[in-house]
């Protein structure tokens, strides 16, 4: 695994070491020791799978309020997604900055997101799936989010969403920093 930090602290692209042979390919997608050695200690508490039928389905942007902040390791085992991370940590030098990454099985990349970073994605093709390793438990009462079209962020999306949940449409706007 190769770890590529970004300008948002803790948002790290993890490039997989893919072994190929006549049958296809094999790659380790998580290693606790390598994560710790990279300064990203991670204990898997829960794992989730998201299946998305329509192209341009949008989910997010979600995160959990402290003390229930949830580090995540996100991957796209099927289809492809435009994956967005937004730093929602007021004390971060990258507060309210966003980054986007295209993830797919061919990207041979998983994405580490620290606590306090909102996460969302838009599918780029039908029947795309997203897999999550979660470093903290789901606590519905601590769940919060940011709107995909939040004016204060100006996130670039590849398309207008085809499907968005009512909850995701109705997060409060952030207003001035
Ligand atoms: C997140 C979660 C949800 N649920 C239940 C609650 C609902 O009955 C159903 C769908 O939940 P929700 O609409 O919040 O699912 P997503 O919109 O895909 O949420 C996820 O999407 C964004 C992009 C993320 O990064 C988060 O991991 C996660 O919030 O699954 C659970 O039972 N456990 C869970 O951990």
UniProtKB/TrEMBL annotation:
One of its GO terms (cellular component) is cytosol. InterPro entries: RmlC-like, RmlC-like_jellyroll, RmlC_Cupin_sf. GO terms for biological process: dTDP-rhamnose biosynthetic process; polysaccharide biosynthetic process. The active site is at residues 62, 132. SUPFAM superfamilies: RmlC-like cupins. The record marks 138 as: Participates in a stacking interaction with the thymidine ring of dTDP-4-oxo-6-deoxyglucose. Its EC number is 5.1.3.13. One of its GO terms (molecular function) is dTDP-4-dehydrorhamnose 3,5-epimerase activity. Catalyzes the epimerization of the C3' and C5'positions of dTDP-6-deoxy-D-xylo-4-hexulose, forming dTDP-6-deoxy-L-lyxo-4-hexulose. This is dTDP-4-dehydrorhamnose 3,5-epimerase.
